[in-house]
Amino acid sequence: MSRYEIAGRDPTQSVAFGWDRPLGKFFVSVLALPQDPSGEEMEVIEVWMEPTTFNAWELTVLAHRYGDMGEANPLNTFDRLCSDAGISNRYTPKAHEYARVRAKREGVLQ
Protein backbone atom coordinates (compact mmCIF):
# COMPACT_ATOMS: atom_id res chain seq x y z
CA MET A 1 0.00 0.00 0.00
CA SER A 2 1.18 3.49 -0.75
CA ARG A 3 -0.26 6.51 1.03
CA TYR A 4 0.78 10.08 0.42
CA GLU A 5 -0.46 12.82 2.75
CA ILE A 6 -0.35 16.51 1.93
CA ALA A 7 -1.83 19.74 3.24
CA GLY A 8 -5.03 20.86 1.57
CA ARG A 9 -5.37 24.02 -0.49
CA ASP A 10 -7.99 24.88 2.08
CA PRO A 11 -6.04 25.21 5.36
CA THR A 12 -8.83 23.38 7.21
CA GLN A 13 -8.33 20.24 5.10
CA SER A 14 -5.72 17.56 4.43
CA VAL A 15 -5.49 15.18 1.49
CA ALA A 16 -4.40 11.53 1.44
CA PHE A 17 -4.06 9.52 -1.76
CA GLY A 18 -2.37 6.39 -3.04
CA TRP A 19 -2.71 2.71 -3.90
CA ASP A 20 -4.41 0.14 -1.65
CA ARG A 21 -2.86 -3.19 -2.61
CA PRO A 22 -5.25 -5.46 -0.62
CA LEU A 23 -8.29 -3.85 -2.28
CA GLY A 24 -6.53 -3.38 -5.61
CA LYS A 25 -7.73 0.21 -5.96
CA PHE A 26 -6.51 3.79 -6.02
CA PHE A 27 -7.93 6.12 -3.39
CA VAL A 28 -8.08 9.79 -2.52
CA SER A 29 -9.55 11.21 0.69
CA VAL A 30 -10.05 14.85 1.57
CA LEU A 31 -10.31 15.29 5.33
CA ALA A 32 -11.58 18.27 7.30
CA LEU A 33 -9.11 18.96 10.11
CA PRO A 34 -10.51 19.32 13.63
CA GLN A 35 -11.03 22.91 14.70
CA ASP A 36 -10.34 22.11 18.36
CA PRO A 37 -7.74 19.80 19.98
CA SER A 38 -10.32 17.24 21.12
CA GLY A 39 -12.02 16.94 17.71
CA GLU A 40 -11.54 14.25 15.08
CA GLU A 41 -10.90 14.53 11.37
CA MET A 42 -14.06 14.31 9.29
CA GLU A 43 -14.07 12.86 5.80
CA VAL A 44 -15.24 15.35 3.17
CA ILE A 45 -14.59 13.34 0.00
CA GLU A 46 -13.48 9.77 -0.54
CA VAL A 47 -13.03 8.25 -4.00
CA TRP A 48 -11.90 4.70 -4.90
CA MET A 49 -10.90 3.80 -8.46
CA GLU A 50 -9.92 0.69 -10.42
CA PRO A 51 -6.24 0.43 -11.41
CA THR A 52 -6.20 1.85 -14.93
CA THR A 53 -3.91 4.45 -16.44
CA PHE A 54 -6.88 6.76 -16.94
CA ASN A 55 -7.91 6.44 -13.29
CA ALA A 56 -4.34 7.07 -12.15
CA TRP A 57 -4.56 10.38 -13.95
CA GLU A 58 -8.03 11.19 -12.56
CA LEU A 59 -6.71 10.55 -9.05
CA THR A 60 -3.71 12.79 -9.78
CA VAL A 61 -6.04 15.60 -10.87
CA LEU A 62 -8.09 15.25 -7.66
CA ALA A 63 -4.98 15.22 -5.45
CA HIS A 64 -3.61 18.33 -7.15
CA ARG A 65 -7.00 20.06 -7.14
CA TYR A 66 -7.61 19.64 -3.40
CA GLY A 67 -4.05 19.33 -2.09
CA ASP A 68 -1.28 21.88 -1.85
CA MET A 69 1.34 20.15 -4.00
CA GLY A 70 3.48 23.27 -4.26
CA GLU A 71 5.69 23.07 -7.33
CA ALA A 72 5.20 19.29 -7.69
CA ASN A 73 4.70 18.17 -11.28
CA PRO A 74 1.43 16.23 -11.73
CA LEU A 75 3.17 13.91 -14.20
CA ASN A 76 5.55 12.78 -11.44
CA THR A 77 2.58 12.03 -9.16
CA PHE A 78 0.96 10.12 -12.02
CA ASP A 79 4.13 8.07 -12.64
CA ARG A 80 4.45 7.25 -8.93
CA LEU A 81 0.84 6.00 -8.74
CA CYS A 82 1.24 3.86 -11.87
CA SER A 83 4.42 2.38 -10.41
CA ASP A 84 2.75 1.72 -7.02
CA ALA A 85 -0.09 -0.13 -8.75
CA GLY A 86 2.23 -2.03 -11.08
CA ILE A 87 0.42 -0.71 -14.13
CA SER A 88 2.26 -1.42 -17.35
CA ASN A 89 3.84 1.73 -18.67
CA ARG A 90 3.55 0.73 -22.30
CA TYR A 91 0.65 3.18 -22.52
CA THR A 92 2.46 5.88 -20.59
CA PRO A 93 3.46 8.10 -23.57
CA LYS A 94 -0.18 8.44 -24.67
CA ALA A 95 -1.30 8.79 -21.06
CA HIS A 96 1.32 11.48 -20.44
CA GLU A 97 0.09 13.50 -23.41
CA TYR A 98 -3.49 13.17 -22.18
CA ALA A 99 -2.33 14.07 -18.67
CA ARG A 100 -0.41 17.13 -19.84
CA VAL A 101 -3.37 18.48 -21.82
CA ARG A 102 -5.83 17.71 -19.01
CA ALA A 103 -3.56 19.22 -16.35
CA LYS A 104 -3.42 22.49 -18.26
CA ARG A 105 -7.18 22.50 -18.71
CA GLU A 106 -7.73 21.72 -15.01
CA GLY A 107 -5.24 24.39 -13.96
CA VAL A 108 -2.91 22.00 -12.09
CA LEU A 109 -0.07 22.49 -14.58
CA GLN A 110 1.03 25.86 -15.92
Could you characterize the architecture of this molecule?
The protein has helices at residues 53-66, 74-85, 92-106; strands at residues 2-7, 13-20, 25-32, 42-49. Strands 1-2-3-4 form a four-stranded antiparallel beta sheet. It is an alpha+beta fold and 110 residues long. The chain has three helices and four strands, in the order E-E-E-E-H-H-H. Helix 1 (53-66) packs across helix 2, helix 1 (53-66) packs parallel to helix 3 (92-106) and helix 2 (74-85) packs across helix 3. It has one domain. A hairpin with a 5-residue loop joins strand 1 (2-7) and strand 2. The radius of gyration is 14 Å and the shape is globular. Helices cover 37% and strands 27% of the residues. The protein starts with a strand and ends with a helix.
Describe the secondary-structure layout.
Layout: E1 2-7, E2 13-20, E3 25-32, E4 42-49, H1 53-66, H2 74-85, H3 92-106
Helix pairs in contact: 1-2, 1-3, 2-3
